[in-house]
Design a protein that fits this description.
There is one protein chain. Among the domains are: 111 residues, no CATH class; 74 residues, no CATH class; 130 residues, no CATH class. By secondary structure, it is mainly beta. An eight-stranded mixed beta sheet has the order 29-28-27-26-30-31-32-33, with no helix packed on it. The N terminus is likely disordered. The protein contains nine helices and 65 strands. The relative contact order is 0.07. Component of the ER membrane protein complex (EMC). Belongs to the EMC1 family. Keywords: Endoplasmic reticulum, Glycoprotein, Membrane, Signal, Transmembrane, Transmembrane helix. Its main location: endoplasmic reticulum.
């Protein structure tokens, strides 16, 4: 019992060492994100919405994003008012806001319907419409679903899901009042839209013919869902559902479409089809003003006309305005048309385009009711930075009309780089860089010292002497500052808060906590982020970012020069595949500023992998798809270094089709060293069983090992298996019912450890030194839940048996004589990402870090997950080794939570980096959100406590010195007197 209490006390002390409530927001930062907004459909694109309730009127910007997040943004500050993150496979397909409600349709086959309070985001109810099944994607991007509110005053919800059924649900609780399904389930009609009046609901379907679509309508009674009648609308639509507009006027709904150069509309009340007078229309655009009867028609030459349906005495489509100079013109980007409302619910249409000649973005705003109902256009230009944010993908519009002939517009822009901006007229209010939710490559960059940064590495002696003489003016202030700091003890501490208003400084702090995070996102935009406060220092678009997306794929970041390589300015290599050129390009960047040092250089043929040669110059080795080696830079010195190191070089590649991928190991063909492009030959191959496919490969960090073994109570030793060439291969069964993990020696191809588990959710694994930890959700009927498996590898089959040395070649390892110790633990939450702490010299203990499904980052001591913990009664030897009895459950202790009270959502990766202090590891978690902190697994043993009293120590030393000076003569006189009298 005493041993158990002692062990619990040890774990508690370890937790207290690293986590303090006072550190929240001081030693860490959290950047919440929502993701890049969906802009391909008007049903999910960003929009303004005014909330009218007893609390007053409030505007919000609602967004549905690629990260399956529904969020509300404050249009004044740009902050997140609220957000809800859906499951990873639950894509949002439709969002509709109405008064104080916002309703979303999501999931495979549009299987879930949710209602939230628009102001607070509180989930009112959730209704499953049917089991999940694949959506009927007969047309790309179309899920054949629709969502609307009834117009009979009850505000109930009418939902069409996956073209199969229409339901009416009570808006207050989500209960289904009735359901309608087509009587002929084998029909080829694709039900796609719904439009309602006070007396009927019309379900619009597309009937596919040989060369076009024909409209088919089913009319339903809104009270009981009974089918009233069905009929066809004579039509021939070439472009499908994306080129129809629903005019959902309360008393008289219409549908409009483009057909053979003409714009037509159908009146659901009278049954009449009417055509516009004008011709040569290529398409029509739904701008979200169906209740106002407005849409935009685009002619063959690109000219844009505004149409109204149901206006005045005429019931057909009438052209009410033409945007001047809107036809396609060289030097002018394609225009984006969108609709918006003012506080009174009046509609407006905007045209946004970029002029290359003026180097500015233009907005033209049309008000149909302006100029006493005749309509009028106002406009302005605003300085949108296309070099930093790419091109504009989408525009959401909001308008204020304070005075006659005066209109104030606010627009929310979504750009090709994932930025979300709000402009009020020509003034930028805020920017959100949402591409940070899709990071594809990342590197920690160490910063130089301040004195190095402020000096010029190549300056001559005279220049250096002149600079140092000029700096003498700072000597008095330095002496005063040093004296004050020495006497008061006000030194920088590990928990010193940083000033959020201070400018970002790109130099290293005392403890090495201040670094630069370089991030490369899926949109081709690179960022430099300051680790002290999370602020963006620089950003740059790499490649081309336009409406088609980024031209770069599969990017990699490599630190080619660091401050530890006698270089004052660190440099980065960005290597990626250019989809436009079908080539591999390489850019060299200044890591501190993001400036291009060397512009894009094409590498041919396509690259299979890239490595650094382990020499002082960090020579780049590129392995192409033909298994040939290319050296960059290619000169006599690099070729000589490569020839010297070639016999010891080895690497592994993932090859083969995705479903039958394998891991191949290669060595340099020595006989080809004299050629321009040396070749390699395969020495081993690892292919998982036919029923498995490779998911990912984990390579351990280059973390130094401070100890080569573990001393036991009987004075024997377990020697760690410290093979730096071990890789972890994680596979998945084709039916997604099982997963496997393999430890493989990447030099010999020998399998050191293998485990197969029952899990449909995949495995998360991490590896450092001789310690492997993997976690999975067990699907076993009698033991469902999250498992954490801890595995340690030791040399030999018995204690004191040493079969290899950490600095010897991998070919001398006896791979058969490796003993794994493993133990499984239960964890109360699902795990989304895992990581390990790393320190400068590897002396501090290792902590296991997880991101759980509660949006928390947690850390657990290696001692807690020690696989040698056994179920027997603890002995004195166990107490000496600090081994506690095995407990199958890893407790949910709040002291283990690194993220404190922050909701860190959607984390998918955790990386760490050592600080200059051996005790401290820097931790960065990213996915949807970004979170940075630092931990000290063994406590901050290498720094003084913040409570250390420097002044008291100085006074004590001075007092002792004075006492010595005073007592020394007295003692000397006494000694002299004793000599005289003895």
């Amino acid at each position: 019992m005493r041993l158990r209490i002692l062990s619990l006390l040890i774990f508690s002390v370890a937790s207290v060492f690293s986590l303090h409530e006072s550190d929240a927001g001081v030693t860490d930062w959290h950047k919440p994100l929502v993701g890049i907004p969906l802009t391909h459909s008007i049903s999910t694109s960003p929009r303004f919405h005014r909330i009218f309730d007893h609390k007053g009127t409030e505007s919000r910007v609602f967004v549905a994003t690629k990260r399956n997040t529904l969020a509300s943004l404050d249009p004044i500050l740009g902050t997140i008012a609220w957000r809800h993150v859906f499951d990873e496979d639950e894509h949002i397909v439709h969002v509709q806001a109405h008064r104080e409600l916002i309703v979303s349709l999501s999931g495979s086959g549009t299987s879930k319907l949710r209602a939230h309070e628009a102001r607070t985001g509180f989930l009112l109810w959730e209704t499953p419409l049917h089991d999940s099944f694949p959506a009927r994607l007969s047309e790309p991007g179309n899920t054949y679903s629709d969502l609307m509110f009834t117009l009979d005053g009850e505000d109930d919800i009418i939902v069409l899901s996956n073209s199969r059924s229409v339901r009416r649900l009570d808006h207050s609780n989500g209960n289904v009042k009735w359901e309608w399904t087509p009587t002929d389930q084998t029909s080829l009609n694709l039900h796609s839209r719904i439009v309602a009046s006070r007396t009927a609901i019309h379900v619009i379907a597309f009937a596919k013919s040989f060369a076009s679509y024909t409209l088919h309508v089913t009319t339903i009674d809104p009270l009981n869902g009974k089918e009233i009648n069905t009929y066809h609308i004579p039509s021939s639509i070439q472009n499908g559902i994306s080129h129809i507009v629903i005019i959902d006027r309360i008393d008289n709904p219409y549908i409009a479409w483009a057909e053979k150069g003409s714009i037509k509309s159908y009146d659901f009340v009278t049954g009449h089809i009417t055509s516009a007078k004008e011709k040569n229309y290529a398409e029509i655009i739904d701008i979200g003003l169906g209740q106002q009867g407005l849409f935009v028609g685009i002619q063959d030459n690109g000219a844009a006309h505004i149409f109204s349906v149901g206006r005045g005495q005429s019931q057909g489509p009438i052209k009410i305005w033409e945007f001047a100079d809107s036809a396609t013109t060289p030097g002018v980007s394609p225009s984006i048309y969108t609709g918006g409302l003012d506080k009174e619910g009046r509609g407006y249409i905007s045209r946004v385009f970029y002029s290359l000649a003026l180097q500015s973005t233009n907005l033209h705003l049309f008000s149909p009711h302006g100029a006493e109902g005749k309509g009028m256009v106002t406009g302005f230009t605003f300085p949108f930075d296309t070099n930093s944010h790419g091109v504009i993908d989408h525009v959401a519009l909001d308008v204020a009309h304070p005075q006659e002939y005066r209109f104030i517009s606010r627009v929310v822009l979504t750009t090709s780089t994932g930025a979300v901006q709000l402009w009020q007229q020509d003034s930028l209010q805020w920017t959100r860089e949402e591409s940070l939710s899709e990071i594809k490559a990342i590197e920690f960059v160490d910063l130089p010292e301040k004195k190095i940064l402020h000096s010029n590495v190549g300056e001559a002696f005279a220049q250096k002497l002149q600079r140092q003489v000029a700096e003498l003016q700072n000597l008095p202030s330095y002496i005063i500052h040093f004296g004050t700091r020495f006497l008061t003890g006000k030194y920088e501490t590990v928990s010193s808060p940083s000033d959020p208003n201070a400018p970002v400084s790109l130099y290293r702090d005392t403890f090495g906590f201040h670094k630069l995070l370089v991030l490369l996102t899926s949109t081709g935009k690179a960022f430099g982020v300051d680790t002290s406060r999370g602020r963006i220092v620089w950003d740059r678009i790499l490649g081309i970012s336009d409406a088609r997306g980024s031209s770069l794929s599969h990017p990699r970041l490599l630190v080619s020069k660091s401050v530890w390589d006698d270089s004052a300015y660190p440099e980065l290599l960005v290597i990626a595949r250019d989809l436009h050129k079908d080539a591999i390009i390489m850019n060299r960047l200044d890591a501190l500023t993001g400036k291009l040092i060397q512009r894009s250089r094409e590498l041919q043929p396509l690259t299979a992998d890239i490595y650094f040669l382990p020499d002082q110059n960090k020579t780049i080795l590129v392995v192409d798809e033909n298994l040939k080696i290319h050296i960059y830079p290619n000169n006599r010195a690099t070729r000589s270094a490569f020839s010297d190191l070639a016999p010891r070089l080895h690497f592994s590649l993932r090859r083969g089709a995705p479903s039958r991928e394998r891991i191949d190991g290669f060595r340099i063909d020595i006989s080809s060293l004299g050629s321009h492009s040396p070749t390699v030959h395969r020495v081993w191959s690892f292919a998982p069983p036919p029923s498995e496919s490779v998911q990912y490969v984990v390579k351990p960090p280059r973390d130094p090992a401070a100890s080569f073994g573990k001393a036991l109570a009987d004075r024997s030793t377990l020697y760690k298996y410290l093979n730096p060439h071990v890789i972890c291969v994680v596979t998945k069964n084709t039916d997604r019912s099982h997963g496997s993990v393999y430890l493989i020696d990447s030099v010999t191809g020998a399998t050191l450890y293998q485990a197969t588990v029952s899990s449909s959710r995949g495995l998360q694994a991490t590896l450092i030194e001789n310690w492997l930890v993997y976690t999975y959700f067990s699907d076993e009927t009698n033991a469902k839940g999250q498992r954490i498996v801890s595995v340690e590898l030791y040399e030999g089959s018995t204690r004191n048996e040493k079969t290899s040395s950490p600095d010897s070649s991998s070919f001398v390892y006896d791979n058969v004589r490796v003993t794994p110790y493993q133990q499984s633990f239960l964890f109360p939450h699902s795990v989304n990402a895992v990581g390990m702490t790393t320190t400068k010299y590897g002396i501090s203990a290792k902590d296991f870090i997880v991101a759980n499904d509660k949006s928390q980052i947690q850390t657990f001591s290696r001692r807690l997950l020690d696989p040698r913990r056994h179920k027997n009664k603890p002995s004195a030897a166990d107490a000496e080794e600090l081994l506690t009895p095995y407990d199958p459950v890893v407790g949910d202790d709040p002291r283990h939570v690194l993220s404190h009270s922050s909701e860190v959502a959607g984390i998918r990766h955790i990386i760490t980096s050592p600080a200059l202090l051996e005790s401290t590891s820097l931790v960065f978690a990213y996915g949807l959100d970004l979170f940075f902190t630092r931990v000290a697994p063994s406590g901050t043993f290498d720094v003084l406590s913040v409570t250390f009293n420097k002044l008291q120590l100085v006074l004590t030393v001075l007092g002792l010195a004075v006492a010595i000076l005073v007592t020394r003569p007295i003692v000397q006189r006494q000694q002299l007197r004793q000599r005289w009298y003895t």
